[in-house]
Design a protein that fits this description.
The chain has 190 residues and is of the alpha/beta class. The protein has helices spanning 2-29, 56-69, 108-116, 152-174, 182-186, and strands at 37-41, 46-52, 74-80, 94-100, 122-127, 142-145.
């Protein structure tokens, strides 16, 4: 009887330690709401939305990204991902999503937004514990990473490059090129 009590007490202690460890892990890794920001660089001609979650890593990433973008003609608005349901991606030249994979899933608000957004305007950064998590939707080009400080600069540079490509493509699509009929070409003087 005494042995059974010791075994049960030991098992209870182990379970209690596991629960405490799990709670500490959840508290340490919980995402706080991101602060709203607005920035205008140059003439602010190109509208960029950045929807993110708050964490030390994401805050540092956002700071470095904003430093990289100072040379452009950008209007940048930063919001928490919880506000995405009220956003129409058509109102923006580009949208950057920075979020954490939680319980091996994309946050529902991100999933809903991705279903309605124009993928050609998106830069998506997903962080996970290992950094190797991949989305099921292959139509979206995603940057994946663990939230490690040494990854901040490479990710910020990758986001900057992808954003510039989106903006350049948008500018080219907006330029109207007059169509010249073939008869007109033959009448051009030498």
């Amino acid at each position: 009887m005494k042995t059974v009590k010791i075994i049960l007490l030991s098992l209870l202690t182990v379970v209690l330690l596991l629960v405490i460890t799990f709670v500490i892990y959840l508290v340490a890794n919980i995402q706080k709401p991101a602060e709203n920001i607005e920035a205008i660089f140059g003439n602010g001609a190109n509208k960029v939305l950045i929807a993110t979650q708050g964490s030390d890593f994401k805050d540092l990433l956002l700071d470095e990204l904003l430093d990289n973008l100072k040379e452009g003609d950008l209007y940048i608005k930063g919001i928490d991902i919880s506000e995405l349901d009220s956003i129409d991606s058509a109102d923006w030249d580009a949208v950057i999503l920075i979020h954490t994979i939680e319980k091996s899933r994309v946050p529902k608000v991100i999933d809903r937004f991705l279903k309605s957004a124009n993928n050609d305007k998106l830069v998506v950064v997903m962080t996970s514990g290992s950094g190797n998590w991949k989305p099921k939707n292959d139509d979206i080009d995603v940057i994946t990473s663990a939230s490690k400080d040494e990854e901040i600069t490479p990710i910020a540079l990758d986001i900057t490059s992808r954003l510039r490509n989106i903006i350049e493509k948008t500018i080219v699509e907006e330029i109207e090129i007059p169509i010249v009929e073939s008869d007109s070409i033959s009448n051009i003087p030498d």
